[in-house]
Amino acid sequence: MKNNFTKSDDAVSEMIDYSIILSIILLATGIIVVAGVPMLEHMQETQHTENIKQSFQVLAPNVNKVVFGNAPAQSVELKMYGGSLSVKKNNYINISMQVWNNSAGSSETLSFGKQMRNIENDFQDTLISYENSGVWVRYSSGESIMLVQPRFTYANNVLMIPDASMSGSSSVSGSGLVRVTADAGRRSIESYQNVSQVNITITSDYFEAWERYLNEHLDMSTIDVNETALTVLAGKSYTENIDVYIVKATMDVTID
């Protein structure tokens, strides 16, 4: 009788051990499902965002060949992971210059303004865009960064400013490969001599990154920032008059 009682205790103990182990397994599985799956999805989305950035780093130099007259057309394949890819028209550039007029014997203000448009990928609330020869990123927090420098140059008292404007309103969404094609339109260069002051206004979703670029790479000081209008104004006075060249290049951009 005593023997049977002992065996009965062992059986109950084994059942308790099994129940504890099963509970631990179920708890661990639950933790993996609740915490692990979202983490894996986040890692996947992060990798997709990085892949999109890399594809725009390939897109920019190819489209810039069209902007600067090195190719009549360029076509680049991009992979989409959801979201949308569009040609948008929510950005502008305005350039104001103080130019010495020899005939009048005084300075006059000359201005140049244009709607640029951009090629923009919207994925998981992160915007990645080719805009006026550069590539820009804006995160869901509102912070924007420059990924590829635009092709503004200043050397030997010569400032060159690109105006890469686009026509077209193509837009696609979903996943898979798409093709972005840029066909050259009219291209011309406007030149200004004896310039003593240059102010550049940029209206863009990436205005904060543009501000840093103008400050750090063109040594321009910020004059005004309007966060509501997504606009930055920066400028510089030159101790020695300079020449300014604006490269005006239009492109017909299609996405299919």
Structural summary, described in words:
With 256 residues, the chain is of the alpha+beta class. It has one domain. It contains 2 helices and 12 strands; from the N terminus they run H-E-E-E-E-E-E-E-E-E-E-H-E-E. Strands 1, 2, 3, 4, 5, 6, 7, 8, 9, 10, 11 and 12 form a 12-stranded mixed β-sheet that branches. A hairpin with a 5-residue loop joins strand 6 and strand 7.
Instruction: Quickly count the helices.
Output: 2
Give a count of the beta strands, DSSP E runs of length 2 or more. 12
Strand content: over 45%
Distance between the termini: 84 Å
The number of domains is 1
Please give the largest β-sheet: 12 strands, mixed
The gyration radius over C-alpha positions equals 29 Å
- Molecular shape: elongated
Short précis:
The chain is of the alpha+beta class and 256 residues long. It contains two helices and twelve strands; from the N terminus they run H-E-E-E-E-E-E-E-E-E-E-H-E-E. The protein has helices at 2-67, 207-217; strands spanning 73-88, 92-101, 106-115, 118-123, 126-131, 134-138, 144-148, 153-155, 158-167, 171-203, 221-226, 231-255.
